[in-house]
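User: I'm writing a tutorial on reading structure tokens. Could you give me a worked example: one chain, its sequence, then its tokens, then a sentence or two explaining what the tokens reveal?
Assistant: Sure. Here is the example chain.
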Amino acid sequence: MTATAGRRRAETRKRRDYDLPTREPRLKSPRTARLLMLVVLLAWIVGTAAAGTAVVAVDTPIDAERPGAALLLIVFSVGLTHRVGGHMRIWSILAAALGVGAVASEANVLLAAAAAASAVLAAVWAIVITRPAVTVFEAVREYVLAIVVALSGTVAVAAWNAPVNYQRFNLVVLTVALGLAITVVWNLGAGLHGLGHQHLAVLAGVAVLVVLVLAYSSFVRAHGAQFITDSISELVIWMRQTFGGVPRPVEVFIGFPALIVGVSMRSRNREGWWILVFAVIGTGVLTTSLVSPGAFPSYIALSTLYSSILGLAVGLVARRFAIRDRSSRAARAVESERRIEPPRLAALK
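And here are its predicted structure tokens:
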């Protein structure tokens, strides 16, 4: 028998097992587990619809805004805790107590805490609910899902209508969300010691970009020349009058592209979770976009639409460079392995 001509290819078609230990399902019956997930999904839809009455004028027999926001707070807590393998009885009870207490007492402190908790949990849950994406279509699908989840958090924050300083509120939410995301990703991404040279370079490049964008924007606002600040203000006013919204640079150049690149890198290495830490910046900015009573929902909606479209374009370009093979010869010689993860509604750890 003669050997078949052609270049040999390494046998890497076999899918690797999941590289993190997962706990045993607490619900032994698959039917009961599916029923519970269905209840959570229905609660998320009902809560979003009820909280949405704070944004869209709808005639309702009762005031459903804050009860809907409280239901969403519980859903965010349950979904995130279940996904990261946390203690459901502790965090879900705390979230329920905070939501019920804020609705019943209407105390400013509880309303602000409930709004902040809703924004943080929604921003992080929007990231961890995603799945590894091998193709461009899968990456876009996960991208849309994350934005939809984050938007439900935006609606919840608007429904709480908490009396807060919106600049301080945004800073607190982003800080806590980043801290929570780093804690989760540290466990899912094997810490920094698991990063290879290529992935560490990508992570460092994204971190430098974040620092430069945030530092430059702060410097321009505080110490920029009058001509520059006036030009930026005129550009923003012109775009708002012409297009009805203005893209947010933090989402376009950092948060949303990191979401595309992160879910794509996770299909090969779990260190892709580290890129998704920066995606929390985008989802966190989105969840807090309606915290100010002076924010117009139509303006925020159009701004989010423009940001998501531009961020998707930037992310697809970055994805092409981030996950490409190091050389064409290596790509021909060895097929890249595909990393697997538990299903979307299962615990990651």
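What the tokens reveal: The two ends are 49 Å apart (CA to CA). Confidence is low (pLDDT under 50) at residues 6-13, 327-335.
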